[in-house]
Write a structure and sequence with these properties.
This protein has about 350 residues and is α/β, with parallel strands linked by helices. The protein has 15 helices and ten strands. The chain has a single domain, classed as TIM Barrel (Alpha-Beta Barrel). Helix 7 crosses helix 8 and helix 14 runs parallel beside helix 15.
Length: about 350
């Protein structure tokens, strides 16, 4: 059985005893990794099972000045026209500049130069990379989450979160136009992701705060759920066996039944500061798998190496019981995390990495 076979069977809860691991480091921690190991290949050094393949959206306009206005030096603008002013590059923290924040009508949304789906050559290259990783025995994940998310996240980065949440009630035509356009683009992209051979499609929409969701279940079911369902259906129509990995920070327990209903297979990151992973496993583990669980607000930065080891063992043995766990820190590992805690995570996760 290859790593790919073991990963897929574990995420489908068809086997138990194997817990794949993952970790993502911020820029300063990646520099530390390079100092320690003398190279930058984290996946190879730490034997992470997943391989990523890019399938980027293409910009349709080079100049977003009409929407962004004059920008300060150092502001980066992506293919969606969203500006980013870095505050702390080492921690990868920045402030967004929303190109649609001053629009007044739905028609202005439709006039905006949205990016388009990847061209045939880009898709061909992605398919070749997927095939190559499969020959090596690795599973492949591709993101359908431009600027971080799939429906809610891209829309609010374009128009501003407060604006979007308000427009859902005060000017639904603007909200619908924007969410529909984002959905249309991501639906096409999801079909392409499935067509090139990805085993996992990653989608994301941060829907929760530390204590609750950003919106009511009724608003989620009206505005986000049906559009997210459309994107997921596009991928599963092309490849019914593709696994949908959905990311949402925060306390999103109220939305989990809806996410299962529309085809989410793996929920990430199950922040222990917001939701108890053991309780979530107990309630939903027969229908849903999980990735994450090790707190980056608590255990990783402020615990001891033994605290990290204890957390990893507990989650692997309980949340991982019967399969369905991809153990990882719940977010990017930030600069304040001691290196000893990072290595404690890797070493302990390796105890459960036999398949």
């Amino acid at each position: 059985m290859t790593i790919r076979d073991a990963f897929i069977k574990t995420m489908r809860r068809e086997i138990s005893g194997y817990v794949p691991k993952d970790i993502a480091l911020c820029a300063s921690q990646r520099e530390r990794f390079k100092e320690v190991y003398g190279h930058t290949d984290i996946a190879k050094e730490w034997k992470l099972p997943m391989r990523g393949v890019g399938l980027r959206f293409l910009a349709t306009a080079a100049d977003f000045t009409p929407w962004l206005g004059k920008l300060d030096n150092g502001v980066e603008v992506n293919e969606w026209g969203i500006g980013l002013k870095m505050i702390d590059r080492g921690a990868e923290l920045g402030q967004y500049i929303h190109p649609l924040q001053n629009i007044k009508t739905a028609e202005e949304v439709l006039e905006y130069p949205f990016p388009k789906a990847p061209d045939k050559e880009t898709v061909k290259i992605a398919a070749e990379r997927c095939a190559d990783f499969h020959k090596q025995g690795f599973p492949v994940m591709i993101y359908t989450c431009p600027v971080g998310g799939t429906i809610f996240w891209p829309a609010y980065k374009l128009i501003g979160m407060e604006n979007l949440l308000c427009y859902m009630h005060t000017d639904p035509d603007i909200a619908a136009a924007l969410l529909d356009k984002v959905c249309e683009i991501c639906t096409e992209h999801a079909g392409l992701v499935a067509s090139v051979g990805a085993d996992v499609i990653h989608m994301a929409d941060d829907l929760g705060t530390q204590v609750s969701t950003y919106m009511s279940p009724a608003d989620f079911r009206k505005w986000i759920k049906p559009r997210l369902a459309t994107v997921i259906a596009s991928a599963k129509k092309v490849n019914p066996g593709i696994l949908v990995h959905f990311h949402s920070d925060g306390a999103v327990k109220d939305f989990i039944p809806d996410l299962i209903e529309i085809g989410v297979d793996i929920l990430n990151p199950v922040q222990p500061e917001c939701m108890d992973p053991l309780e979530i496993k107990k309630q939903f583990g027969d229908k849903l798998s999980f990735s994450g669980c090790v707190g980056t607000q608590t255990t990783m930065p402020f615990g001891s190496p033994e605290d990290v080891r204890s957390a990893v063992r507990s989650y692997c043995e309980h949340v991982g019981k019967g399969g369905g766990l991809w153990i990882a820190p719940t977010h990017l590992v930030e600069p304040e995390v001691p290196w000893e805690n990072i290595t404690a995570f890797i070493e302990t996760a390796n105890e459960y990495a036999e398949y």
